[in-house]
């Protein structure tokens, strides 16, 4: 099997997408944008040993490669439409590829996303996905839209993926009752696409939590020229995890762990009811965890309103 | 300097592009498609040791990373508009990055292309570019559009990059008078964007020559369900190279070498004049090198119309 057979056999599944004029197999794919919509674009590169373990199951790897990109669309409130996948693979192992592709296409189908192109080459497991989504013209959950007085919300639960990662790195031991959910959060993050779209008319600023909640909120604050107060003990967690881990460890994983792929977003207080309705419609829990203020910085406080100082504010790829 | 400083400092140059609603720095970029246009998309991944030498100059590397993607747009007849660049870098070497970015932005500016997003991470020099181009709705130089009787044309000259690569690998010695042009072809291929756009109303099928002329023509033949006769001795070359290399070596580099990033395209014989006019307008030489027929296969013949058999039909990334 050579590169072209591989493309034909595993990737050239015709998308049932009438906006795709020309799919995989030419120098480029052609799509027809719908009138009245903007398009949004994001790319993520994942490398073995940095973004995933060498022994990761192909099903889990494929899921994550696509999920982290879907998460970017969720953070814009966009409807994901198309992806291009580049892959450097050490060899063409048919069984491995079949598992990878089945998982990839299953997640893509869940979100109505068509694979329209990409590249394959030989190399040591590198993946890059570019995702393209649709937004009603002029809309979009941008980082620079937070306003003083906004509530800060977080979807799902945070810190679980970091706990699972640190358990694998022997930095902590997970309580048995929390292990499966933490592992799932690390291996199969759920992109909050439905929530992002439901929030589009309701929320102001949003972003997904990939590098650590505190750091990712910081991007919103900086882009919007505002500050915030974040209530650490209000952060949605697994109770078993919070009870079991030391306080410092729990705070580190929750505030600076990253890899959560939950949404952090702001909305005006008068939209609390609308946020709840959107969350319910999307089937996703949301929790109010702080407030935007004019301080220009991020203050993290505990239940007694005492300052919490983090030694590290999240993951820096070159840190 | 951390990842975010890097992005701000080197990549966050605001494109002067009124169709970019939101550029680098959010979860995704937003662009506004123009009514009446389709969009086309292509991705290429380049790895150290496979697509470029470890000691390549950053200026040349940046050029090639972008040029090979521009070439895909050229092969569709599209106007390139936007790119997303993902890069895995072993370290943040400011001088290296400055050279890389200056070269990248210079080539982008030449083609009116704006960088709207991407990703940076730590790793051993991997690049992925996704490029987005515009096509008037319903148009595009597809691989499946060749028709029996069409002329086959090639732009520029072929085999030069392969000669330079093989010289580096000590498989051949370049004649001194040909060495600079061969080196330039390998390091700084010229994407035939103007030619591709000029050919849009004139040519039928097209593709760029990345994996070797014979193999790449093969893709057109297969997609179009046709065959072809290719005149090896009509192929545009450097005369000094053809004279100097052995016949088998010259044929191998020219027909199966790859990395040319020239266009191979077909057009009806009644459009010969129009093809010449388009080529002149684009400032690019084109040469008629064969004819599409109904044979279903590719026959390569010499000046005496004797069959030439290639042992390898071009580069297979997994061969």
Automatic annotation (TrEMBL), chains A, B:
Which residues participate in Mg(2+) 1 binding?
Answer: 43-44, 119
Q: Where Mg(2+) 2 is bound, by residue?
A: 44, 72
Where do the annotations place Mg(2+) 4 binding?
A: 27, 42, 72
Q: Pathway membership of this protein?
A: Cofactor biosynthesis; thiamine diphosphate biosynthesis; thiamine diphosphate from thiamine phosphate: step 1/1
The alphabetized UniProt keywords are: ATP-binding, Kinase, Magnesium, Metal-binding, Nucleotide-binding, Thiamine biosynthesis, Transferase
Residues annotated for ATP binding in this entry? 118-119, 143, 210
CDD domains named among the record's database cross-references: ThiL
**SUPFAM superfamilies with a match to the protein in the record:** PurM C-terminal domain-like (SSF56042), PurM N-terminal domain-like (SSF55326)
Q: Which residues form the PurM-like C-terminal domain?
A: 147-301
Q: Where is the PurM-like N-terminal domain?
A: 25-134
Q: Which residues bind substrate?
A: 51, 259, 315
* Reactions this protein catalyses: thiamine phosphate + ATP = thiamine diphosphate + ADP
Binding of Mg(2+) 5 occurs at 211
GO MF terms on file? ATP binding; magnesium ion binding; thiamine-phosphate kinase activity
> One Pfam family, short name please?
AIRS_C
Q: Miscellaneous notes for this chain?
A: Reaction mechanism of ThiL seems to utilize a direct, inline transfer of the gamma-phosphate of ATP to TMP rather than a phosphorylated enzyme intermediate.
Matching entries from PANTHER family are given as: THIAMINE-MONOPHOSPHATE KINASE (PTHR30270)
- What is its biological role? Catalyzes the ATP-dependent phosphorylation of thiamine-monophosphate (TMP) to form thiamine-pyrophosphate (TPP), the active form of vitamin B1.
Q: What is this protein called?
A: Thiamine-monophosphate kinase
**Organism whose genome encodes this protein:** Bergeriella denitrificans (Neisseria denitrificans)
